[in-house]
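Pilot study result, target chain (204 residues):
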Amino acid sequence: GAHVLRAIDQAALRAAPLPISRVVDMGVELAAALQHMHERSTLHRDIKPSNIGFTASGTPKLLDFGLAKILVAPALSEDRHAPQASTSTNDAMRTPSADFLVGTPAYFSPELVSLHPPDYAADLWALALTLYEAIAGANPMAARTALDTLERIATRRVPRLDSVRPDCPAAVTDFFAAALGPRLDERPSSATAFQAGLQRLVAS
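Predicted structure:
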């Protein structure tokens, strides 16, 4: 395959967030790569800007599969949006799971923070937040310490994109508001659905 030349630099993003149309196009390709993994019952588990690289032709690629995990059992129940038993933030802080809480805390989904077993939805959340960061210039869930970051994920909604990037079109803002909604049934149900949502933005 084509040699990957560079990864996204978060300091560069803070200085100059990427063009919105470029991020949407990147998301379409990255969602396709993620769907390819998920169809093989594999989770990436560490999607973040520094794990997105670009080939010489500018094609985005998922990098660093060191934490990838093959799921022996189905990751999702038949009802993917079935309500989960709630876990308080304090309980989550007191009972970390070495298996669940692997990766980069600032990109953990709310379900991971509440110690729900990792599934495809966790990868989709991390991809959505990575793309959000590329547009906004910063990850709003990242705090000074890992503990503060987990607390923020457990208790706060991700701000709407147009509140931090006023030139963001309403349709793009709405897509990310749904993809980063606190409830599973608000979000795309698969990487294919995620990709389709971004493709609709491209078409419009």
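One observation from the pilot: The radius of gyration is 16 Å. A full batch analysis is planned for the follow-on phase.
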